[in-house]
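FW: tagging you since you asked about this chain on Friday. Here's the raw sequence from the shared folder, copied in full. Didn't touch anything.
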Amino acid sequence: MASVPPPSAARLYRANRFVSLPAELDPDTYDTSPEKRRAEAERLAIRSRLKRQYLLQLNNPSPPAVIEDPALLRWAYAKSQNVYPTFRPTPKTSFLGAAYALGPLVFWIFVLKADRDCKEKRIQEGKYKRPFSVFF
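HL: got it, structure written out here
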């Protein structure tokens, strides 16, 4: 009876949950479908065209006053104008907004009212003599 050869190191490999999988072993990297490769090639072509256009503007002997970078314009628009996708009003965010806006106000009202009531009680009991103050 022929003996079975031992399994290779690739068959014995198991992913470690504490370490991320290297890109060489990630199935998403090497096991791509033709559509995915075509989309990646299109994105690479668009990126290279934009890079070439930007470098031509940058190295122009008579450059324009402002060199516009389309990626930077998109980022600035997404950061300033298009706020809705990054924030959605939910009950949690509404509660947190109310807590941060009204919480400190209610806290200080309570503290000052409690201090005033305590002082008033001590005045009525005769344990506190009011100092002369013009402002308070």
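FW: The CA atoms of residues 49 and 114 lie 69 Å apart.
HL: agreed, and Helices lie at 9-12, 27-30, 34-58, 70-80, 91-125.
FW: great, closing this out.
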